[in-house]
Structure formats: C-alpha cells, structure tokens
Amino acid sequence: FLSDSKDRLSHRYSAFIHSDLGLFGTILSLQPAVYYHRQGQFQEIVYGTALKLDMKKSGGYVGTMNNLSASIGLFHRWGDALISRIQLELADFKFGFSYDFNISSLQTSSRIRGGTELFLAYQIKSKGRR
Known about the structure:
- The protein has 130 residues and is mainly beta.
- 3% of the residues lie in helices and 55% in strands.
- The chain is globular, with a radius of gyration of 18 Å.
C-alpha cells in the first residue's frame, strides 16, 4: 500500500472456460466450467458443473426481463475442497450462495467445515452482442 514498500505482489493470471449445453429442447441445461488462477508460485484449479432451470423458456410470465433462471452445482477445487453452489439469474444480475467443504489434509483441523460465500455479479453487454 505504500510506494516504498519492499513487499511486491505477483501478477495474477486467470482463465475461464464455461459452457451452457441445452438438454434436448427442454428448460434444463448443463453448465460445465473450469477456472484457473495463478499468482506467483500459487495456483488454483476449480472444475465442475451446474444444472440450470430456465424459467423464461417454461412459458411463465417474466415481463421484459432478458432471462430468469436458477441453478444448482457441484465443483471441486483441485486437492482441497468440494464446492456446492446455488444461483439465481435475473436479467443481467446473478445472485448466489456457495459453501466449500474441506476434503484436503486440512480437514483434520477444519473438521470438514469450509467457507460460505455470497455473491452478486452484473453482466455488461456490448451493443448488438451478448
């Protein structure tokens, strides 16, 4: 935080692969994903999938909203934890809750308890493209 600090933070590199695969014309889709982060000597790989229910396709009234969907997923952080996630998408917003279950050697001290995460995301769209 100070300009004369001798502690330097390494650059962080991130890569994401995410897909939305519709299931045979139904209101359900699978959302497999892989996330990779590297900062200095540390790295993290998270992979898994979610099952999404697209409520707009179900014929329900949602007004002028772009989308309305809910999903539930299970992910794995390589060598460390299982992550459960629940998410609601409403127009350009995503709201969600996830919980990490520690399954690594740290479970001895954590008693398999992990961390809770609440999140809010907003998607900025360019004109003419999603």
